[in-house]
Specification:
The protein is α/β, with parallel strands linked by helices. The chain is 44% helix and 13% strand.
Length: 501
C-alpha cells in the first residue's frame, strides 16, 4: 500500500467510506495512515489520505474536510508550512497536528500557526485519537451553525442593506468597522431618512452583542409623561395605572444594544437621569430603590443640531459629550448623488421580490429625473418613489412619467428663475410640513433646525466656488476663517470634495 500511495498526490479510499464527517489523514508513514483510518472508519467517518505536504495543502484547499490530522515532518515543506498556508479565511478545516517530535517548540509553533489541537506519536491508545477528532468535529459543527445563524440574523433583523459606494458612505463604513470592536457610546447625526437606524442595527448585529436584543426607542413618539417608565421601567403602584412591575427598555436590552432615536427630543427633566445611566452604568425603576446595572451598549440618533440645542439651553452639554463619544454623521442623499443609481436598482429589485411588481428595468430618462431631484426625505423618500413607480408602471419598464416627485423633491430640477418663486417662497414651501407634527403636538426648535439645514450647503457651495480655498470661502461668506473652520468641523464637511480649481 505504501508504494502505490507514494506515487499519488492524494489517495481516496472507496472501501467502506462511511457516511459521517470527512477526515483527512496527512502523514508519510503508511502504517500510521492505516491504523488511524481503520479506527476512524469504525466510528463512521469518511477518511481520505495525503502522503506529503503539497498533496495535504491541495486537499485542505478543497474545503471538503471537517477535520485534518497533519504530521509535522513530511516530504515537502512540512506540516508547519501547510498550517501557515492553510489560512483560516480560506480553509475552514480544523487541523490537529500529529508528530513524533514532541518538543515544546513544535507544540507552541503549531498552535501559533492555527492548529486546533496537538497529538504525539506513537499512539498508545487510538481511542484518544478518535476522541480528539470527535471533539474537533463537534466544535467545527457548532462554529458552522453559529456562522449560519449569524448570517440569517443579519439578513432578517438588520432590516435592509446599507447601499452606496460614494466617498461619504465609505467614511461611514470605516467608522462602523471601528466601533463594532468596542462598546463606546455612538451618536448618529443626520437628516430624517438617511438611514441612522439602519447603521445602528448594523453596528449591533456585526458586534459581539448580536445574539442579545436590539431595542429601539423613539424619544419623540412617546408622551413625555410615560417616557421615564418606558426607559427605566416601574414598580407596581408607583403611579396611577401602574398595575404591575414592568421592565423598561434599558433592562430589556440586557447585554444587547439600546437605540435612542430622536434623542434631541428627550425632555429636559429626563436628561440628568440618562446622564447618570451613562456615567454610572446603573439605573432604577420608577418607584424602586433597587439599583440595576446597565449592560447594554447605547447608540443615540438625532436629526437636530445638538450643539445649537446646547447653546439654547435645551440640551445638557455634559449629556451631549457623554453621547458623542464616537460621532457618525450620515450624509444627505443630495450629498451622495452617485449612489442614487445603485439605490434605485436595489429598490426596483425589492419591489419585484417583496411586492410582485412587474417593472424590472428603468429608462435613462427616468434615472436622470431621479438623480436630479433634491430628495429632502433622503433615502426613505427615494425608496417610496421608486417602489411606487415599480408597482404602478403599466409595463415592465419604469419611465420618467411613471415617477411621481413631491414638489420639494423636484426642487433640484428647477429654480426660482424657472418660475419657482423667490428663495423665501422656496424655503416657506420646504418647511411648511415642519409645523405638522405627529399627533398634533406643537413643533419645537424650528429655528435651529432651519439654520442647521441651510448652513451646511451654503458653506459647501462657498468652498466649491473657492476651489477649496478656505480664506476665499470665508471672505465670500463674510465669516472669520476660524469660524469657517469650526463650521467645517461641526458639519463634518469633507474638504477633499473641493479640489483646487
Amino acid at each position: 500500500m505504501g508504494a502505490s500511495a507514494s506515487n499519488q498526490d492524494f489517495t481516496e479510499r472507496q472501501k467502506d467510506p462511511g457516511t459521517g464527517p470527512a477526515i483527512l489523514i496527512a502523514d508519510d508513514d503508511p502504517a500510521i495512515r492505516l491504523v488511524v483510518r481503520h479506527r476512524l472508519e469504525a466510528d463512521g467517518y469518511r477518511v481520505e489520505e495525503a502522503v506529503d505536504s503539497p498533496s495535504a495543502l491541495a486537499a485542505l484547499r478543497t474545503n471538503r474536510f471537517d477535520v485534518a490530522l497533519l504530521d509535522i515532518i513530511m516530504p515537502g515543506n512540512g506540516g508547519l508550512e501547510v498550517l501557515s498556508a492553510a489560512h483560516p479565511d480560506t480553509v475552514r478545516t480544523l487541523i490537529i497536528v500529529i508528530t513524533a517530535a514532541s518538543t515544546m517548540n513544535n507544540a507552541v509553533e503549531a498552535m501559533k500557526r492555527g492548529a486546533h489541537d496537538y497529538l504525539t506519536k506513537p499512539f498508545a491508545n487510538l481511542d484518544l485519537v478518535a476522541a480528539a477528532v470527535k471533539r474537533a468535529v463537534e466544535i467545527g459543527a457548532q462554529a458552522a451553525d453559529l456562522d449560519r445563524l449569524k448570517n440569517e440574523v443579519n439578513r432578517q433583523l438588520v432590516g435592509g442593506e446599507i447601499i452606496g459606494r460614494s466617498p461619504a458612505m465609505q467614511e461611514v463604513y470605516k467608522l462602523i468597522g471601528r466601533v463594532v470592536t468596542n462598546d463606546a457610546t455612538v451618536l448618529l447625526s443626520g437628516e430624517s431618512g438617511t438611514g441612522k437606524e439602519l447603521v445602528a442595527r448594523a453596528i449591533h448585529f456585526k458586534s459581539a452583542r448580536w445574539r442579545s436584543p436590539f431595542v429601539a426607542v423613539n424619544c419623540s413618539a412617546i408622551p413625555h409623561g410615560l417616557l421615564e417608565s418606558e426607559l427605566f421601567g416601574h414598580e407596581r403602584g408607583s403611579f396611577t395605572g401602574a398595575m404591575e412591575r414592568r421592565a423598561g427598555k434599558f433592562e430589556t436590552a440586557d447585554t444587547g444594544t439600546i437605540f435612542l432615536d430622536e434623542i434631541g427630543d428627550l425632555p429636559v427633566e429626563l436628561q440628568p437621569k440618562l446622564l447618570r445611566v451613562l456615567q454610572e452604568r446603573e439605573f432604577n425603576r420608577v418607584g424602586s430603590a433597587e439599583t440595576l446595572k446597565l449592560k447594554a451598549r447605547v447608540i443615540a440618533a438625532t436629526n437636530q443640531n445638538l450643539e445649537s440645542l446646547v447653546a439654547a439651553r435645551k440640551f445638557r452639554e455634559d449629556l451631549y459629550f457623554r453621547l458623542r463619544v464616537i460621532p457618525i454623521q450620515m450624509p444627505a442623499l443630495r450629498e451622495r448623488r452617485e449612489d442614487i443609481a445603485e439605490l434605485t436598482d436595489y429598490f426596483v429589485s425589492k419591489a419585484v421580490q417583496e411586492m410582485g411588481a412587474r417593472a424590472t428595468t428603468i429608462t435613462p430618462e427616468a434615472r436622470v429625473k431621479l438623480e436630479s431631484a433634491d430628495w429632502p426625505g433622503n433615502v426613505r423618500e427615494l425608496e417610496n418613489a421608486v417602489m411606487r413607480a415599480a408597482l404602478l408602471a403599466p409595463g415592465t419598464t419604469i419611465r420618467a412619467d411613471d415617477i411621481e416627485l413631491t414638489r420639494a423633491a423636484g426642487a433640484g430640477a428647477g429654480s426660482a428663475a424657472d418660475g419657482g418663486g423667490t428663495l423665501g417662497d422656496i424655503i416657506s414651501t420646504r418647511i411648511a410640513g415642519w409645523f405638522d407634527s405627529p399627533g398634533g403636538e406643537e413643533p419645537r426648535d424650528l429655528y435651529h433646525r432651519l439654520v442647521a439645514e441651510i448652513e451646511r450647503p451654503l458653506v459647501e457651495l462657498a468652498l466649491k466656488r473657492a476651489g477649496g480655498n478656505q480664506v476665499r470661502a470665508a471672505r465670500m461668506l463674510g465669516l472669520n476663517r476660524n469660524t469657517l473652520r469650526k463650521k467645517i468641523t461641526d458639519h463634518k464637511i469633507v474638504l477633499t470634495k473641493f479640489p483646487p480649481a
